[in-house]
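Course assignment 3, question 2. Fill in each field.
Student: A.L.
Task: Predict the tertiary structure for the chain below.
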Amino acid sequence: MQMLYNSDSYAVVMFDMSADASSVGGADSPSRGGYEIVDKFARKEIFIEGALAQSFKEGVEALIETEPSEEEIDEYLARFTSLMHQPVVLH
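Answer field:
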C-alpha cells in the first residue's frame, strides 16, 4: 500500500499485491492490485482494478508530464466521483 496523492479534496492509494509462490496460483500468477480513490468531501470511495486501473494510471502519467497544479489533479480525480458509491467508514 502506497499513498500516491493527498489533497484537501482527494486521496489516492495504490495497492500492489504481487503474487509469490505461497499465494493461490503460485509463482506464475500475475500481480494484482489497484487504486483506492477517496473523495474527502463526499466521504465516498472507490477501488479500481484491471482495465479501469490501467486507464487511470495512463491518464495520471499523461497528466504528470504537464506538471499539473493541485486543482488540475483534483479535476482529473473528479471524473471518478460518479462511480463512488462506497461510503468511507473509519474504524
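Instructor remarks: The first helix runs from residue 50 to 64. Residues 20 and 89 are 31 Å apart (CA to CA).
Grade: pending
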